[in-house]
Structure formats: structure tokens, C-alpha cells
Amino acid sequence: MRVVSGIQPTGNLHLGNYLGAIKNWVAMQDAMAGGDTCLFFLADLHALTQPVVAADMAANTIEMAATLLACGIDPDRSILFNQARVAAHSELAWLLGGTARVGWLNRMTQWKDKAGKNREGQSIGLFTYPVLQAADVLVYQATHVPVGDDQKQHLELARDIAAKFNTDFAVDLFTLPEPYISPAAPRIMSLRDGTAKMSKSDPSDASRINLVDSDDLIAQKLKRAKTDPEPLPDTPAGLENRPEARNLVTIFAALSGRTPADVLREHAGQGFGAFKPVLTDLAVATLAPIRERLTAMLTDRESVGVVLRNGAEKARSLAAPTLLAAQQAIGLQV
Ligand code: TYM
């Protein structure tokens, strides 16, 4: 098993990232057997598709790396690095640019959402973003890619690119990666709108719980989280057309490692006035220790930098043979 996944080092890690992806990274790392490798990276090159403040780039990368370490990524067992330090990602992305089709990229919902009506004014990087993402996983022959549900389409594209490359150049080079989407928390929604995903780019900080939020702030955000006046139903079917209620039950279930059905069996009939304080205790119990580890880690940023540089060196040696094989398949090695 070869596990590969990435996260953009922009803004703070939020509960959606944690429950939808990072918790699974740690679980997969902890379940590794001999011969398995996990690679996790800060997608700093992908972050260039948004406006860049050069002075903040390095600090953001170190802070996100420290957050992953605080969440349980162990650099003795997993390879943790930043994408920009492993040139093979960019080199393979260019080679795959000959394989990927404009029509495929035009269908990406993230591109359509982010570009809106102003496609002509977007950076080329925002459009070709999923090709770099394909290179990120294909360069390591990833078998499993733990992500939230919003990345599924990008992973399907990576499979299409891999299959077309293998066919076009008559090679059996790229492994087709499987997205691994957490069944417990495929998609965590905004606390202000149960139909929009919890996101770093939402202008309202009240829409998300950040991993750095204090206990009081977590309590305040959950107290103000949008709900409806009905009590909790006794089965998940009763959450239909109640997106905010469903979201809080999903968060409760994912935090407590139980199914929504179990949570509802226990809390059926309760109003949100009673449910929210229990949810708050649960969120604080999970997040406070992460926040404390993160604060301690940020007192020694240089050590985090060393972890990333060591990780990049290991990643470079794992990526090299696949990049070489791709160049050979195309006839670029003279
Ligand atoms: P990013 O940085 O937006 O998010 C990191 C991870 O968090 C998941 N996620 C969520 N899961 C559930 N509910 C939510 N509200 C939520 N918000 C975010 C994302 O699905 C993701 O798994 N393009 C990627 C980064 C990337 C990548 C890769 C991922 C670059 N190369 C290669 C996997 C493999 C991104 O922007 O994720």
C-alpha cells in the first residue's frame, strides 16, 4: 500500500480538513504494515493559484506542517514534506500536460466554481491545477489517496490521465490511485449554512471551527451554529431536508467515532439547547490537546523545517524512478 495525500498551506486547518482527511491520514499511518509507505505533503505549489503574499508563504508552510505533526503525523513513520522541494511533481505535471485534455479540465467543478463567469481572467495554474494534483500521486505510484469528498473528481481525473498515458505510450507505468473517502465524515458543512462546505475561503470565521480556536471560541461558534427548532429524530432518515441538523450530527458522530444512527439513538428527542453543549465538550476534548501540541511545536520552527527537508530528500528518491520511466516512455532520454 502506498498512501499519498496533500493539503494546501493556506489559512488554518479546520474541522472539515481534520475529520474529512487528516484523521484518516493518521489512521492509515497507524495501520501501516511492512512495505507500506505514507507520504503527506504541503501543496505549496497549488497554493500559487490564489493570490500570494510572498512574505507569508514559508511561515504558512511551517505552521501547516506543525499542525499535521500535532494531529499525529509521525515523521519517523510517514514522509512529510513540501511539494515545491520535490521537483519531480512539477516535471511530471508538464509531461502529463500532453496527455490531459482541455475538455476534461473544463468539467472540473472546482474550476467552474472558482473561476465563475470570469474564466479569461484566471491564472493558467487554476485551470491546470488538477494535472499537478495527478502528478502528485502518480509520481509515487500511490494506491490510496485519503481525501474529503470534494477531491473525488480530481482523483478520478488522475486515474483517467494515468490510464490514457499508459495506453498512449503502451506502457504499464502508472498505478491507478483509489480515492479513500472517510465514510464517517465525507463532507463537513459550514456552521452558518448546511448546504455549503466548511472551507478556509469562507469570509465568515463563524462558519468553521479552526484547530487553533480556543475552547471558548469553539463553544461560542457551536452555540451560534445555525439549527432548526425541531428536536433530534430517532434515525438518520429524519434528518432529510435538515442540512444544519444533519451536519451537527455528522460532526458529533465523526468526533466520537460512532455512526450517526448510534448518536441519534442516544439523543433522539433532544433539542439543540441540550445537544450543543455535549457536542462542544466532545469538540474541545479532541481539539484542545492538538492545539496545545501545536503551540509547543511553534516555539521551535526550525525543527519543523528540518522535518520537511528530511522528508523532501526521501520523497525525491521515491519519485525519481517513476519520473525517469515516464521520460523514457515518451522518448525524452537520449
Ligand atoms: P485542501 O487543502 O482544500 O483540503 C485538504 C483536505 O481536506 C479535505 N476537506 C474536507 N473534507 C471534508 N469536509 C470539508 N468541509 C473539507 N474541506 C476540505 C479535502 O478534501 C482534502 O482532502 N487539491 C487539494 C490538495 C492536494 C491533494 C493533492 C490532495 C494537492 N495535491 C494530491 C490529495 C492528493 C486541496 O486543495 O485540498
TrEMBL record:
Catalytic activity as recorded in UniProt: tRNA(Trp) + L-tryptophan + ATP = L-tryptophyl-tRNA(Trp) + AMP + diphosphate + H(+)
One BP annotation, GO: tryptophanyl-tRNA aminoacylation
Subcellular location(s) per record: Cytoplasm
Keywords: Aminoacyl-tRNA synthetase, ATP-binding, Cytoplasm, Ligase, Nucleotide-binding, Protein biosynthesis
GO molecular function: ATP binding; tryptophan-tRNA ligase activity
Motif range ('KMSKS' region): 197-201
Keyword DNA repair in annotation: no
EC number(s) recorded for this UniProt protein: 6.1.1.2
Locus of motif 'HIGH' region: 9-17
SUPFAM superfamilies hit by this protein: Nucleotidylyl transferase
Major localisation: cytoplasm
Superkingdom of the organism of origin: Bacteria
Binding annotation for L-tryptophan: 136
GO cellular component, one term: cytosol
Function recorded in the entry: Catalyzes the attachment of tryptophan to tRNA(Trp).
Family indicated by similarity: Belongs to the class-I aminoacyl-tRNA synthetase family.
Assembly notes: Homodimer.
Name of this chain's protein: Tryptophan--tRNA ligase
Organism from which the protein derives: Sphingomonas gellani
UniProt gene name: trpS
